[in-house]
């Protein structure tokens, strides 16, 4: 059993297609298929059901996948640990983030990090919380930025900062000129929120529950940009975190004055994963940006 065979197997499992997996691994498709066949022969089991347009893991393949991922992860960590002991500032850091944080918080962080550590590549994966935690457990990401709390004894949490929540109103709304309002003031308005699965939707719904507001949700989307555009047309109102507050034509943002109207933004890692020097450097960059965010909120 060779490491490249395990990489090819995981690539087919991830893409569901031998051709795409070959492209991902920068190898000819016949060579990749041949190596998968050799792996199956050695294991004595078929790993994929092959169809004209896709490949699907068999039960044996499903059982073998986490073991193959674990082997590759351990080899990668061993290589990284040796490099770290040699003080080599190179490599790749994979960071996951929920979509309601990544476009607002990460750009400045990654720009500064790239300037300071040109030998380190940072890859960003956006997903909802459940998907990011799955990526973390399977070693596909090293760090995760999301909204706290999340649960898991094997997880290590660090709160970076807290941010206020704002009502997003059409600019013609009767309350648009206010500096702050309570959620009860817009309880009868149609609400536009993120879809189920996005943790900020739960933040917004929890805020409504604390204010005894039962929102009439008439529109759902996976992106704040779509929701803000809909609010601008007068379709309804929404709730957004401070970092999503921006100059958006047709919208006005008013701070929510109710108690505990905030979101906790944190960093999550696996407790027993060896942190590389590159990962530690990126974590420190995230902390610096978090301190800047806290200072901004305090003003």
Uncertain segments are none
How far is the first residue's CA from the last residue's CA?
Answer: 59 Å
The main sheet comes to: 8 strands, mixed
Silhouette: elongated
Query: What is the alpha-carbon Rg in Å?
Result: 23 Å
Mean pLDDT, to the nearest integer, reads 91
Q: What is the CATH fold-level name of the largest domain? A: D-Maltodextrin-Binding Protein, domain 2
Strand content: 15-25%
SSE pattern, N- to C-terminal: HHHEEHEHEHEEEEHEHEEEH
Secondary-structure-based class equals: alpha/beta
Query: Can you say what the CATH homologous superfamily of the largest domain is?
Result: Periplasmic binding protein-like II
CATH top level label of the largest domain: Alpha Beta
Beta strand count: 12
Description:
With 299 residues, this protein is an alpha/beta fold. It folds into three domains: 3-74, Winged helix-like DNA-binding domain superfamily/Winged helix DNA-binding domain (Arc Repressor Mutant, subunit A, Orthogonal Bundle); 84-160 and 264-298, Periplasmic binding protein-like II (D-Maltodextrin-Binding Protein, domain 2, 3-Layer(aba) Sandwich), CATH 3.40.190; 163-262, D-Maltodextrin-Binding Protein, domain 2, CATH 3.40.190. Helices cover 43% and strands 25% of the residues. Strands 3, 4, 5, 6, 7, 10, 11 and 12 form an eight-stranded mixed sheet that branches. It has a two-stranded antiparallel ribbon with strand order 1-2. It has a two-stranded parallel ribbon with strand order 8-9. Helix 1 (3-15) packs across helix 2 (18-25). The longest helix has 27 residues, at 59-85. The radius of gyration is 23 Å and the shape is elongated. It starts with a helix and ends with a helix.
């Amino acid at each position: 059993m060779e490491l490249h065979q395990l990489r090819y197997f995981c690539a087919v499992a991830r893409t569901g297609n031998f051709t795409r997996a070959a492209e991902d691994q920068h190898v000819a498709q016949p060579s990749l298929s041949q190596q998968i066949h050799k792996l199956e022969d050695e294991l004595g089991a078929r790993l994929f059901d092959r169809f004209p347009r896709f490949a699907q893991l068999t039960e044996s393949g499903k059982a073998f996948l986490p073991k193959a991922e674990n082997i590759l992860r351990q080899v990668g960590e061993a290589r990284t640990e040796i490099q770290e002991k040699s003080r080599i500032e190179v490599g790749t850091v994979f960071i996951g983030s929920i979509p309601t944080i990544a476009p607002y918080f990460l750009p400045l962080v990654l720009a500064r990090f790239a300037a300071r550590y040109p030998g380190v590549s940072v890859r960003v994966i956006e997903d909802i919380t459940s998907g990011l935690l799955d990526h973390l457990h399977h070693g596909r990401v090293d760090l995760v930025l999301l909204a706290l709390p999340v649960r898991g004894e094997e997880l290590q949490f660090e709160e970076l900062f807290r941010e206020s929540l704002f009502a997003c109103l059409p600019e013609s709304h009767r309350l648009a000129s206010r500096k702050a309002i309570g959620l009860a003031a817009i309880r009868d308005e149609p609400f536009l929120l993120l879809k189920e699965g996005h943790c900020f939707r739960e933040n917004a719904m929890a805020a409504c529950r604390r204010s005894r507001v039962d929102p009439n949700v008439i529109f759902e989307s996976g992106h704040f940009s779509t929701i803000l555009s809909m609010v601008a047309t007068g379709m309804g109102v929404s709730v957004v975190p401070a970092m999503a507050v921006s100059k958006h034509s047709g919208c006005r943002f008013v701070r929510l004055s109710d108690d505990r109207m905030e979101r906790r933004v944190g960093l999550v890692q696996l407790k027993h994963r060896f942190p590389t020097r590159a990962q530690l450097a990126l974590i420190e960059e995230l902390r610096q940006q978090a301190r800047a965010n806290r200072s901004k909120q305090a003003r």
